[in-house]
Amino acid sequence: MKLWKTILAAAVLSLAASTSAFAARTDLVIGIALEPPHLDPTAGAAAAIDEVLYANVFEGLTRIGPNGEVLPDLAESWTISDDGKVYTFKLHTGVKFHDGTDFDASDVKFSLDRARADNSVNAQKGLFAAIDTVEIVDPATVKVTLKNPQGSFLYNMGWGDAVIVAPETAGTNKEKPIGTGPFKFQSWAKGSSITLVKSDNYWGTPASLDKAEFRIVPDAAAAVPALLSGDIQAFPFFDPDSVAQVKDDPRFKVVIGATEGETILSINNKKSPFDKLQVRQAISYALDRKAIIDGASAGLGVPIGSHMSPANKDYVDLTGRYPHDVAKAKELLKEAGLEKGFKATLKLPPPTYARLGGEIIASELRDVGIDLEIIPVEWAQWLDQVFTKKDYDLTIVSHTEPNDIDIYSRKDYYFNYDNPAFDKVIADLGVTSDEAKRKELLGQAQKILADDAVVGFLYELPKVGVWDAKLQGLWENAPIQANDLTKVKWSE
Amino acid sequence: MTAYLLKRLAIAIATLILASMVVFAVLEVLPGDPARLMLGLNASADQVELLRNQMGLNAPLALRYLHWAGGLLSLDFGRSYTYSVPVIDLVRERLAVSLPLALIALALSTMIAIPVGLFSASRRGRAGDTISMGAAQLGVAVPNFWFALMLIYVFAVWLQLVPAGGFPGWSAGIWPALKSLLLPAVALALPQAAILARVTRSALIEVLNEDYIRTARAKGLPYRAVLWRHALRNAMIPVLTILGLQFAFLLAGTIIIENVFYLPGLGRLVFQAITQRDLIVVESVVMLLVAAVIAVNLLVDLSYAVVDPRLRTRQ
Fold first, then answer.
1. Would you tell me which CATH number, out of the four given (1.10.3720.10, 1.10.357.160, 3.40.50.170, 3.40.50.1100), belongs to the domain B87-313?
2. A189, A223, B10, B30: least surrounded by Cβ within 10 Å?
3. Cβ–Cβ of A215/B30 closer than 8 Å?
4. Are A125 and B44 in contact (CB < 8 Å)?
C-alpha cells in the first residue's frame, strides 16, 4: 500500500510540474508550402525567403508593419531635406549581428552600395535606383542623397531585399544567414525544415518565443492532418479550399486577411484584336467576378476594379466601372467588327487560382463569343513564354509585389501597354512625397487603367491563415509576404 | 562467368554514357531560364544576363556537357544553381531518407507478398485464393495518396501513435526517425506487395504444374516441403525481376508519398529542381538513378545465377 501511495504522489507531482511547463510554451512549428532556395533576402525573388527571415532574422533601416505602414527599424529616426533629396538616418546604437560583431553606419553603406552595384543580382534592384550617394556621417548616422525626390523611398527601404547585412558575412548568408533581428538562424534540414532560435543579445524588445521551426509542407492535403495532430500549430498561408475542414473546430482560428496580390486576367495589349479598346472593355464586361472568386478561391477574396489592394489607403473603388453585362460586351465586340467572335489562347500557370479561374473565365468569354483555348504551363515556361517573350494572348496571374501600379508604365513589360498619359502620372508620383498629392495621383493612375481596360481586374488574393486558437500575434494581413514572429506568443 | 561479367559491365558503361547524353540534351531543350526564375518578375533583362554569366549558363552547349560529364567521372556532380551547394551533399541528405524508406518498404512488401502468393497458389480457385487475390486487386487499384491520407488520419490524428508527416533527421535518434518513416513505408509497400503477390502466385502456379513437382510429391515429400523447397525456388526468377524494378521505383518514384508526408526524399528533390530549372541537380540525380538501376539490374542478373544453378553452368 505504501508503495502505491508513493507512486501516486510522484505521479501527481510530475503532473503538476508538467502543467506548469505547459503554461509557458515558447516553441512554435509553422507550416510553409514552398522551401526557400537559399536564405539571403538580398539575392533572390522567392517569397519563401522573406516568409522565414523577414523581421525575424534580418532588419532594414525601416520595416513594413502588419498593415503595410512604414515603421522605424534599425534607423530610430530620420530627417528629410526640404527638397526631398537628402535622408539622414539616425541609427540605433548597441546593435549586434548574430555573430557578435557590431552594427554601425558602415554596414548600412555596405548593404546599400552592394545592392545597387553594377554586378548586383538583387532581385529588386529598382528599389535602389534613385540613390545617388550613401555617406557615413558618424557610426550612428547615415546620409543618403537621392538623384531626385522619391515618394516611396522609406517604403522601399523596408523591403526584405533592402535589409542590412554585414560585409564579413554577406557572402555566406545564403547558407548561414547572419542578421540583427530578434531570432537567429540555427539549422536548415534541406527539404524538411528551418529552425530559428531567440537571439540573446537583441537590441530591441526580445521575442516571446524561444524557438520557431518552419516546416515545409508542399501538399495542401497534408496541411489539415498536420494541424489536427498538433504536429504543426500554424499555417499563415493556408489553402482556401481546405478551410471548410477546420473552420468549425474550436481548437483553431481561421483568419482571412488581405494581401497585396492583384489577381488579373493579363492581356497582350499589342496583339490583335486586343489592341482595340472595345475588345478589352468587352472582356471586362464579360467577367463575372463573384463567380470567379467563388470558383477559384472558395468565395474568399475582394473584387477589384483596378491595380490596387482594397486594403491600401489610396484605393479607389472602381469595381462598378464594368459590371457583368453580356449584352454590353457583345455590343462592344460588334463595334469592333467582331460580332462573329474570335479565337484566342489563355495560358495558365500552376496556382489553383489560375487553373480554376481560367476554366470559369473561358466559359464566361465563350458566352460573348470569344473562344479560348486553355494552355496549362509551369512557372518556368510561363516566365519564358509569357513574361519574357510576350508570346501570349491572355493569362491569369497574381501580382503580389506591394504598391506595384508602376509596372504598367514599364517599357517592354509583358502587358505591352503604352499610354504616355499614364506614364506621366507615374513619373510625377515618383518625385512627389506629399501624402495628399500622392493620393490624388494614385487615384488618377487607377482610373486610367480601368478606363483603358488594360487587363481584366479580378480580385485581391486573400490571405487565409489557420493557427492554434491559443496563439497570438501572427499577422492577419500580408502587406508583404512575411511571417513576422517578433510579437507572437502563446496565451495562458 | 568472367566473360559474362565483362560483357555485362561493358553494356552498363555504354548505357551510362548514352543516358548522360540523352538526359543532358532533353533538359537543354526544356523551356525556362533558371536565372529568371531566381530573380523574379521585377529584375531587368541585364540583371538576368549578369546572373546567367555568373552561373556559367552562357558557355557553349558542348563545353558544358564535357565539363559536366568530366566532373561525373571524378565523382564531382557540380553545384546546385538554386541552393549553391554541391549536388552530392544534397543527394546524400536525401538518400538518408529515401534509401531507408525504400528498404523498409521493400522488406514489408516482400514479407507480405511471398506468403500471400504461396497461400493463394496452394489454394488455387478456392475461397482463400479468391479473397486474397481480391484484396491484392484492391491494393493495386487504390490510389496511394488516398491510402496514405487514410493512414495519417487513423494513426496520426486519431490514435496519435506517429507524427502526421515530416522527418526529424537521424540525429534526433533512431526511433523517432524510424517512426516517421513507418506510415510512408506502409503506404508505399502495400500496392507493391499487391503486385508482387500476384506475380508470385502466377509464377508458383506455373511451376506447380511441372512434372518434377508431381515426382517430388510422388516420392513422398510433404506438400509444404515441395512448395517451399522446389516450387518457390523455381518461381523466384520473375519475382526477383519485379523486386528489382520495384526497388528502383521506391528510390525515386515516390514523389506523391513524399509530398503527402512532406518527407525530404530524392523524389521531391528532383521534382523541385525541375520546377526551378536547377538543371545540374536534375541531370546529376537522374544519372545517379540510372547508375543505381543498372547496378540493381546487374545484381538481379547475378541473383538469377544464385537461385538457378543451370544459369551458372550455361555461361
1. 1.10.3720.10
2. B10
3. no
4. yes
